[in-house]
From TrEMBL:
Residue spans crossing the bilayer: none
Entry's Gene Ontology molecular function annotations: DNA binding
PROSITE patterns: TYR_RECOMBINASE (PS51898)
InterPro entries: DNA_brk_join_enz, Integrase-like_cat_sf, Integrase_catalytic, Tyrosine_recombinase_XerCD
Coiled-coil residues: none
Keywords on record: DNA recombination, DNA-binding
Domain Tyr recombinase: 5-212
Organism: Blautia wexlerae
Family: Belongs to the 'phage' integrase family.
Single biological process term from Gene Ontology: DNA integration
Protein name: Transposase from transposon Tn916
Amino acid sequence: MNDSVTREAISRAEERKFLRFVKEDPHFCRYYEGIYILFKTGLRISEFCGLTISDIDFKEHTINIDHQLQKKSKIGYYIQETKTTSGTRKIPMTADVEECFRKIIEKRNPPKAEPMVDGKSGFLYFDKNESICYSLHWEHYFQHIIQKYNNTYKVQMPVITPHVCRHTYCSNMAKSGMNPKALQYLMGHSDISVTLNTYTHVNLEDAREEVARIQVV
């Protein structure tokens, strides 16, 4: 996946509708907290899947991101460094994200012997076969949710993947006027131009407001 390709972020209204649907669905509600976190942190899916209980610091209210979980058919599960050195970061947890992590940890259902991957254990999600959930699991969950949503409602939901969640978060933060360098850090982008590509909504009115705001200071 190349972050520099402009991807479709969904609107805030679509995000709300999608999250509400997941939360209220008797089957898919089990993935609600994970999907909420993806939308509200902009984590890469392999970073999210690699998180272990010890990466969630409730005292400092931070998420530690210094590795990703990957799986290949011939190798099985393995831990990989973050995509770039900028990918290694600690990001602040908002109260709602923290609440979701608490619920995930409370509800997690690990096999009797906690699986260990390259020295790491305490992963957050497992499938029905007691395997650690990795990116492909989540890709499938999203596909099934969208399918069910679009079979239920006349107004169709666009394609949503874990990467669309990341792009949506980035766009939302840009639209909210977050400092591009702060957003670059949160996203773990090594190149500011990738982050700046999400600031494409800027027009004369936005520029006028910014100039006015800076003069006031």
